Fold this sequence. Notes:
The complex is a heterotetramer of chains A (about 290), B (about 400), C (about 250) and D (about 260).
Chain A: H1 24-28, E1 34-35, E2 48-49, E3 53-58, E4 61-66, E5 70-75, E6 78-83, E7 95-104, E8 107-111, E9 118-121, H2 137-141, H3 143-146, E10 152-160, E11 166-169, E12 176-178, E13 181-185, E14 198-200, E15 205-209, E16 214-219, H4 227-245, H5 252-264, H6 275-291
Parallel strand pairs in A: 2-6, 9-11
Antiparallel strand pairs in A: 1-5, 3-4, 5-6, 7-8, 7-10, 8-9, 10-11, 10-12, 13-16, 14-15, 15-16
Helix pairs in contact in A: 4-5, 4-6, 5-6
Chain B: H1 8-19, E1 35-39, E2 45-50, E3 53-64, E4 75-82, H2 88-92, H3 100-115, E5 125-127, E6 131-143, H4 148-162, E7 164-165, E8 168-171, E9 174-177, E10 186-187, E11 195-203, E12 211-215, H5 219-224, E13 228-233, E14 239-244, H6 252-282, H7 296-313, H8 332-343, H9 349-357, H10 362-369, H11 371-391, H12 401-411
Parallel strand pairs in B: 4-6
Antiparallel strand pairs in B: 1-2, 2-3, 3-6, 5-6, 7-10, 8-9, 11-12, 11-13, 13-14
Helix pairs in contact in B: 3-4, 4-6, 8-11
Chain C: E1 9-10, E2 17-18, E3 23-26, E4 39-40, E5 44-47, E6 50-53, E7 57-62, E8 67-71, E9 84-93, E10 96-100, E11 107-114, E12 130-139, E13 142-148, E14 165-167, E15 171-174, H1 177-185, H2 188-193, E16 198-202, E17 207-212, H3 215-230, H4 233-248
Parallel strand pairs in C: 4-8, 11-13
Antiparallel strand pairs in C: 1-3, 2-7, 3-6, 5-6, 7-8, 9-10, 9-12, 10-11, 12-13, 12-14, 15-17, 16-17
Helix pairs in contact in C: 3-4
Amino acid sequence: MEAHKHSSASFTILRPKRLSDNAEPVSRLSHVPITSPGSVIPTEDHSVRARGTLLSCGESGNVLTATRAGVISRVNKLVMVMPLRSRYIPETGDVVVGRVVEIANKRYKMDVNATKHAFLLLTAINLPGGVHRRRNQEDELNMRQYFKEGDLVSAEVQERRKDGSVALHTRSLRYGKLSAGQLVTVQSELVKRAKKHFHELPCGVHTILGNNGFIFLSQTRKGAISLEMRRRIARVANSILALDSEFIAIGPDTIMDVYQTSLANGVEVKDMCTPDVVKSICVGARSMREAA
Amino acid sequence: MKEKVISLCEKNFTIDCIKANCRVDGRRISEARKASISLGPNWGFAEVRYDRTHAVASTTVEAITPTPDRGSEGSISISVELSPTASEPAARASLFRNTGSFIETRNCIESFVRDSRSVDTEALCVLAGVKVWSVRVDVHIINDDGNCMDACMLAVMASLMHARRPDVTVTGKEVRIHAMDEREPVPLPVHHVPLSATFGLFGGGRPFDPDTVVLDPVKTEELASNGSVSFAFNSQGEVCGVYKGGGLPLHIRSFEVCSKLAATHAVGLTAILKAALADASAEHPLSTVRPMLVDAEPVAMLAKKESEREKLAAPTSTWNATPVLDTAPPDIDAMETITRARAVPKNDLIDGVFEHENEDDQNEDMKDVGPEEENKMIVEKLIRSDSESSTEGLEAAIVPKKQRKERKTRRR
Amino acid sequence: MSKRPSGMELAKQPGTIILPGERMANIGDSADAGQAVIRIGSGVTQKSSELLASKAGYMRYEASRNKLWVESNQKRYVPALEDPIIGIVQDRFGEEYRLDINGSDTATLSMLAFQGATKKNRPNLGAGALVYCRVVRASKNMEAEVSCIEPGSTKSWSGGETLYGELQGGTVVQVSLGMARKLLREDRVLKMVGNVPFQSAVGVNGRIWIEAGNCEHTMLLSLALQKADVMRADEWQEFVKQLWSQSKK
Amino acid sequence: MAPPPKRGRGGGARGLEYISLDGLRVDGRLHTEVRKIRCSLGTLSRADGSAYYEQGNTRVLAAVYGPREPTGRDFEHDKAIVKCEFSTAMFASTARRRTWKGDRKSTAAAIVVQRLFEGVILLAEYPRCQIDIYVQVLQNDGGTLVAAVNAACLALINAGVAMSDYVVACSVGYVDNTFVADPNSLESGSDRPELTLAITPHSGKICSCQLVSKLADDASFESAMQYATAGAKQIFQVLEYEVKKYSLGLLDSRGMVAL
């Protein structure tokens, strides 16, 4: 029973998210070690098991099997499977954008697109006016003045505790409450870890690339946002969504590529979302990237 | 809904015991608990006990006009109730009775009995399009000490085999149903007897780990296991249904071990069922074709139960820390009204309550139901049965209409 | 009826079976003041000048502390001060564990309430862990509080020799409260259970932890204990002999 | 006198002849062949993981949300809980049928899918979390439970949930006293035996197995199991190819092959 050749799907309503679903990448990248759950991973005896794999003792000694679909990556003794898609896995030092979900005793519960809510302790935020003192009962009472439910906050992952819970902190002037801007949600793997996550795009849009896939766009200058600036922010947002739907790595350079291509092709901001326009823009951006 | 809290060391202990092939209550892995079946005085009333797991089933048969699309077929429907007395979580969950594990039991029994065609619905037809028999089996799980699936299955089959329907003569288009005491009632057309065996699954979740199967798990084993599989076989060794709802993935080898074990287990169970049916029909008081008078015999039976309770309640040696709480037995004349009420062949739990009283491990039952609830149950039954028997007269033998309608409304 | 200096004359002899509602003692009217203090235990209620039983069981009277109570046999444990009990850890909230003690409500066990535990060096109990502990606060309208600190003992919890603390291995047998109290008072039964060396911890809330070398002996012990709760003395001894002879085969 | 007995058990309502002389079934398949399968991963943008699965004319859509914070009060402190909802569209089968949220058939199917994946997903990796599986049947031509299990498996892989193995389901009918793999709605009448089997393909273990109604004495239970496992292996090849293609497609577009 040969595998079904996946002809371009005749059903139109449920077009798979990835437009180019032809089998071409399979042949080109066949050398990449791809696994899926349950498939056995060949291991030498001294290899050490890491994330994404499962050791079970079969009849012929213990067998290493993968638990996720992804790439097998071997770093000298370490064997692990890097999943291609999963919820955000917090690492210490990551810049994230979180949304306050609940205010518990002396801490804010933040949704950071991860498997569990992260905690922002009252002791880990800057009090207004940058005053430094121990938090007392009165601070606890007016916690809602600092952040309330639904607020967007940019923060940094302080530590991951043993039981899996994550602590954030906003102990620097860069971090704090975000206002007057737009939030775009993408897949967390697409945002590469870099030194700088706060970027001033040439088109005057200030972006915070959260590692957890929450990207916040706002205006660099203070004050009211002009109509032209709103249109620019919308165009940046649409180009980020285009990158996300084409699963292309998101960084200031790729965002600007798509932004310029969409301007060059004279595509209106509002019809940047239709699937085929997105496809053509991304292909254009990639060719420009390879040309440069 | 939080199951009974089981500590880690109890769980590990249960699993170690299974590895050493001597289970928590002394049985071997492939050994089931002894099933005891007692078929009640009324037709179709069966009570099954696996040590402490206790289920009661009762069948009612009724002539109804069939639905147009399946005019020539009778209908059989089974409802399984987890009564709040069964276990603590069951009591707490009395509001919504459809907890996950329980729905599975009900669907599973329905597929084993009805879909495996054990009762031939076509033979239940009196006159095509006019009158067909509708068989309804209601099962209550009184006390759940693990594996209530097999107890219910055995209770349903015992009740179906013991049930009788009134005789009927069809002349041309006209159908005449004889009362139960006019003509000898007719048993139901049961073709084969599917009986189930349930196994608890134990083993690590990883792909190549070995796994063990345990026949007829008790409550602690059920809590410590990660999955269960049920096989239904009849005594001819034909497989009538299999249900594994998920949980631990199982090796093909242990799957076959289970099916063989289930086949032999079914043969053993059928033998016990047949024995119970034989002695039930022998001493069945209602089988004599005499008008329904106050029958001296049941009163004697009650007196016998009375004397047994005295014997048990005699002062035990001081060492036994648990004195039998000698709640004062209900006074004699209250018992009189009960016997008169009993003449009407309706299956009221009241008989069940008295029967519990003089079971040999009476403390066992008192213990599980707890002294307060036991008193409450008896008083409640006394009040209800008195009101029923006094208000409506002793009508025809079939279940009085009022109660049937009331049962129907409660059902929907 | 004997007149007691304690200002109360008993209607019945201590040790007899008493039923709810029966008169246990008569206090006499409060006119002759200056009487000795009368302590009422569980199962006794006061109605004007009479003490009535509210539970069925044995009537107990302790002359020294002039205490009157009804010893009843039930499965649901009511926490009382200084009771040694076995709890199962259900969950962890902040600084406390929540224990199921087979009672009407859960009990709380502070993380520091272990022998020689400090903020840094304290036991880390997962859910389902078994803890042998002592009731330190028991009141009708508040959650019971338990602790694993034994007054007067200096050993640290990590050493493992302390009386209270986590119980590892073995199994737990659920028996009625009356049986558990009897085992605690005189362990004649425990000696007769089996001629195998085993450890045991008796919880007054009806849970008995036993641990023998291998799991078959532990299983036989737990069976014997469960049956001891329901069988009569002679039947039980015979059952135990037969149990052990079977296991030898 | 009871009405005349109906013509033989296998005759079926309209007396249709199910297997032609040269062994072909109603839709031209051999008795061991599975229907044509077309599926794709990541069809929904909002869900963490999603899959569209089509087996013959049965079309199913599965979405997975999680692992995330538990919504209700019942959560386990040391492992994740799996919740499943199974709903059939009103237009799914020939006659328009309104199904309420809690009706018997869909709750039964939901429980099977939930218990199934509780055995396969490594729940201990996500303590105090909840994984929601939603299955929507768009078109029903028999074997909706099988399609639902396969679609949910793809959606879980797409969501990156840790699983010890795939779960692949296949059903076997019994028509004109021969076993037929993957029966469509015509062949799986109500009074004919049907075996639905879900296995973990790599280790060949049985995750879930449901046999409805008595097997005739000559047809043995073991041969039915062999048919079902063979069918499941066929389906597994298609699923694995699809996941491989999807993963490589992602890698290719993301451009960062060596991470």
